[in-house]
Amino acid sequence: MCSTTPQYLARYGAPESPEDLKRFRSVVFVERDSVQPWSFGAGQEMKRVIPTGVFRTSDME
């Protein structure tokens, strides 16, 4: 696993849309045993992505 963002992006590429995030390693926030979605945009244009990740946490700090 790459340790820094530039190395990670060089290896895996950069996401071009919220849907692309599904294939990236990420930190996943879990609340009440449920993975919390990431929201992008607002109103009718809002998109939600359920992240997949190798690290899960219930602590926002």
Walk me through the topology.
Blueprint: H1 5-12, E1 27-31, E2 34-35, E3 38-40, E4 47-49, E5 55-57
Parallel strand pairs: 1-5
Antiparallel strand pairs: 1-2, 3-4
The fraction of residues in strands falls at 25-35%
Q: What coarse outline follows from CA principal-axis ratios? A: flat
Radius of gyration: 13 Å
Q: How many strands appear in the DSSP assignment?
A: 5
pLDDT < 50 runs, ≥5 residues: none
User: Strand sequence of the main sheet, in spatial order?
Assistant: 2-1-5
Q: Structural class of the helix and strand makeup?
A: alpha+beta
Major beta-sheet overview = 3 strands, mixed
Helix content: 10-25%
Q: Cα distance, first to last residue?
A: 23 Å
Q: What is the multimeric organization of the chains shown?
A: single chain
Number of helices: 1
Helices and strands, in order, run as HEEEEE
Summarize model confidence as the mean pLDDT.
84
How many structural domains does the protein architecture include? 1
Can you tell me about this structure?
With 61 residues, the chain is α+β, with helices and mostly antiparallel strands. It has one domain. 13% of the residues lie in helices and 26% in strands. It contains one helix and five strands. Strands 2-1-5 form a three-stranded mixed beta sheet, with no helix packed on it. A two-stranded antiparallel ribbon has the order 3-4. Strand 3 and strand 4 form a beta hairpin. The longest helix is centred in the N-terminal third of the chain and has 8 residues. The two termini are 23 Å apart.
